[in-house]
Write a structure and sequence with these properties.
With about 190 residues, the chain is mostly helical. The chain has four helices and no strands. Helix 1 runs antiparallel to helix 4 and helix 3 runs antiparallel to helix 4. It is rod-shaped, with a radius of gyration of 39 Å.
């Protein structure tokens, strides 16, 4: 019985080895393609986050290097502060009405009152203007650095998927070569056994 099994096995093994090797190779290709396709899809989903993160990082770097962020609060920042501008315009208008009504619009007293008003307004509003400026600086920085960090996370995940795709393809190549070697061994073993 043992000699019949040995006599039948070599003639069946080459064909079966060839068929199973071809099927296994194709299955390995399909599995690797499915896995790779899923990872590439995940990568494409990360692309928008990487792009906005890159843009935010560039804008943040440019803002920091130009002094638009992280600079010093200047007189120009104070003078262009919307709160200061509004109070200044309203105060000057009220002062002008008062002086016109009293008939001393071009008097020395009018100039003195205008100077006192301007100095008092600056004293009152400087700190508020600074705090608004600082809050805007912090908000802009937080927004850009948050988006930049989100982009970094997406890029890290993208890189992980790239590495996994490489591993999948490498493992598939090794598995296919192992299957081919086994198939060749089965075929040559079957031929040599005749």
């Amino acid at each position: 019985m043992s000699s019949i099994a040995q006599a039948v096995t070599p003639s069946a093994n080459p064909v079966m080895g060839l068929v199973s090797g071809i099927r296994a190779t194709k299955a390995t290709d399909r599995a690797a393609n499915h896995q790779t396709s899923g990872m590439r899809d995940a990568q494409s989903q990360l692309n928008p986050y990487m792009e906005t993160g890159k843009q935010a990082n560039t804008q943040l770097a440019n803002s920091l290097s130009s002094g638009a962020l992280g600079g010093n609060f200047t007189t120009g920042d104070f003078k262009t502060d919307p709160g200061y501008q509004f109070r200044l315009a309203e105060g000057e208008q009220a002062l002008g009405r008062k002086q016109s009504a009293g008939g001393n619009y071009f008097s020395g007293q009018a100039l003195k009152e205008a100077q006192q008003f301007g100095q008092g307004l600056a004293d009152q509003t400087y700190n508020d203007a600074y705090n608004r400026w600082l809050q805007q600086q912090q908000n802009t920085y937080n927004m850009l650095s948050g988006q930049s960090a989100q982009g970094l996370g997406a890029a890290t995940n993208y890189g992980d998927y790239s590495a996994r795709i490489g591993d999948t393809m490498a493992n598939a190549t090794i598995a296919k070569e192992n299957q081919r070697m086994k198939m060749m061994s089965d075929i040559y073993g079957g031929i040599g056994g005749k």
